[in-house]
């Protein structure tokens, strides 16, 4: 595949990623005299801030993940390609990707890398098996199935100890995602599922929010952090701070307290929201360009979001380390628009990249929901909490959702949720156990390969 339906040697822009940064860049290039190819490993644009609502049955996948192809259908200078990028050659100016069993290569004149970040387990990748994070649609559906599966199993088991374990939900990480997740599981148990089981009382479920840090929502400051904590406790979430997770297994987690002592929390359902690691494409670019990467794999970019000695390559969004910018969607969106503007201007006027003005981030504030009707918001010097912050959160998220239809349906789903209804609590065994099944299949394939290698070596061994 070549880069797009190239017209008369037009400038070719390749964008990696259809998230906030990639999509913003593609849209901002609409009027530019360029051919754009947007390649991403998923066919949708994912609105990650509302993933937790899919994981807890409030919203459906379609509402937060519209097809990128349809979103960009009317933008004639964009070609959308589904593909997992595994190689970037900065000298040849090519990007290599695979879509299923098909390999293809894209040539570029300008490259925008917006591949985002993955969950980080701080070197303990095996934790992921028992405590999935929440970064993708797969994650949200798996978590929803695991959460619902725990209530279902608790209803039918006669083993009291197992029932307690099934009705204990641990969320690791008291940042916005952890707070939102813990709050929603508590509300699901105490409100939505009320009276719907016969042998268990879902309201007796324990929801525990664990963090190694001493505060809830540290970036929001003490006042809002304490407000969020108080609200969570009010709806029944247990908060355990200064508790570092040292191990995770099928039956629960082990935590280390400040005095060095270790203890277990038995819980079948564990959810990880404790850290992020930038896409490995950042490291790949750094190795070829001499750029530095930080411990989280983020690339230290130039002030114009380009790489050292490579003004034609931009890195944006969650993959960058610049001026302590946070890993939030406005940084990615503004970065995408900024780099699109530089490319469009340079293509139109022939201006040198040396004349670029630095990227300036405009911080519009941050917000997180805690429960129904309750959120916290920090906007410049203003700190809001409770119902007002929640209304603000609602309006902002509606405004940023892609598509009029999605906004209407989301509003409808939120309306139903206010009456304690959740329309999307369906779960399947494949969602719940797919990850374990894949891991088992991989292990048995590895064992098969080892056995075949050993057999071949035995056949080749010289006879005594
Ligand atoms: C659960 C959750 C809640 C959040 N809540 C908020 C919030 O309330 N407010 C806020 O501002 N921010 C929030 N964020 C952060 C925000 O979503 C990110 O900062 C933002 O998505 C970053 O945009 P991005 O374009 O850099 O990456 P992403 O939006 O993550 O997009 C990355 C894209 O790259 C693609 N990709 C990755 N690797 C490859 C590859 N090798 N080949 C091809 N394609 C690839 C992915 O498929 C995806 O399309 C939240 C994040 C999460 C996970």
UniProtKB/TrEMBL annotation:
InterPro entries, alphabetically?
FAD/NAD-bd_sf (IPR036188), FAD/NAD-binding_dom (IPR023753), NDH-2 (IPR045024)
Q: What residue stretches are annotated with the FAD/NAD(P)-binding domain? A: 12-336
Name the Enzyme Commission number(s) assigned to this protein: 1.6.5.9
Gene Ontology MF: a single term = NADH dehydrogenase (quinone) (non-electrogenic) activity
Keywords assigned = Cell inner membrane, Cell membrane, FAD, Flavoprotein, Membrane, NAD, Oxidoreductase, Transmembrane, Transmembrane helix
Gene Ontology cellular component terms for the protein in this record: plasma membrane
Q: Which residues form a coiled coil?
A: none
Location within or outside the cell: Cell inner membrane
| First-level EC class | oxidoreductase
Query: What broad class describes the main subcellular location of this protein?
Result: membrane
Q: Where is the composition biased (Basic and acidic residues)?
A: 443-464
What cofactor requirement does the entry state?
FAD
Per the record, which residues fall in region Disordered? 441-464
- Membrane-spanning regions, if any? 387-404
What Gene3D superfamilies does its record include?
3.50.50.100
Q: Which domain of life is it from?
A: Bacteria
| Family statement | Belongs to the NADH dehydrogenase family.
Record-given protein name: NADH:ubiquinone reductase (non-electrogenic)
Species this protein is from:
Dietzia lutea
């Amino acid at each position: 595949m070549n880069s797009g339906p190239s017209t008369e040697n037009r400038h070719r822009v390749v964008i990696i990623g259809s998230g906030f940064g990639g999509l913003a860049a593609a849209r901002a290039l609409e009027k530019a005299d360029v051919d754009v190819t947007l390649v991403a490993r998923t066919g949708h644009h994912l609105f990650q801030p509302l993933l937790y609502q899919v994981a807890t049955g409030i919203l459906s996948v379609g509402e937060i993940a519209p097809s990128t192809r349809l979103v960009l259908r009317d933008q004639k200078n964009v070609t959308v390609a589904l593909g997992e990028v595994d190689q970037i050659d900065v000298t040849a100016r090519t990007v290599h990707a695979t879509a299923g069993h098909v390999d293809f290569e894209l040539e570029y004149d300008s490259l925008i890398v917006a591949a985002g970040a993955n969950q980080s387990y701080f070197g303990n990748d095996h934790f992921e098996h028992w405590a999935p994070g929440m970064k993708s649609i797969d994650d949200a559906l798996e978590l929803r199935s695991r959460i619902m599966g725990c209530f279902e199993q608790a209803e039918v088991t006669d083993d009291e100890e197992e029932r307690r374990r099934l009705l204990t939900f641990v969320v690791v990480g008291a940042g916005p995602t952890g707070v939102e997740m813990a709050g929603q599981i508590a509300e699901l148990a105490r409100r939505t599922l009320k009276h719907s089981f016969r042998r268990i009382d879902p309201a007796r479920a324990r929801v525990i929010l664990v963090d190694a840090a001493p505060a809830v929502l540290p970036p929001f400051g003490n006042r809002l952090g304490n407000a969020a904590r108080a609200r969570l406790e009010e709806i029944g979430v247990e908060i355990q701070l200064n508790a570092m997770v040292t191990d995770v297994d099928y039956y629960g987690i082990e935590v280390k307290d400040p005095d060095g002592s270790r203890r277990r929390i038995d819980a079948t359902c564990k959810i990880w929201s404790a850290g992020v690691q930038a896409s490995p494409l950042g490291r790949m670019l750094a190795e070829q360009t001499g750029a530095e990467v930080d411990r989280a794999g983020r690339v230290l970019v130039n002030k114009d979001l380009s790489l050292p000695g490579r003004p034609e390559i931009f890195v944006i969004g969650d993959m960058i380390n610049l001026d302590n910018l946070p890993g939030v969607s406005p940084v990615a969106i503004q970065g995408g628009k900024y780099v699109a503007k530089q490319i469009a201007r340079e293509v139109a006027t022939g201006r040198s990249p040396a004349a670029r003005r630095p990227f300036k981030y405009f911080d519009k504030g941050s917000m997180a929901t805690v429960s129904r009707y309750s959120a916290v918001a920090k906007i410049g010097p203003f700190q809001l909490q409770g119902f007002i912050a929640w209304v603000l959160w609602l309006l902002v998220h509606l405004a940023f959702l892609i598509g009029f239809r999605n906004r209407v349906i989301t509003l409808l789903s939120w309306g139903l949720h206010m009456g304690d209804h959740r329309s999307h609590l369906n779960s399947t065994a494949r969602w719940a156990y797919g990850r374990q099944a894949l891991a088992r299949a991989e292990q048995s394939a590895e064992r098969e390969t080892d056995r075949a290698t050993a057999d071949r070596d035995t056949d080749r061994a010289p006879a005594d």
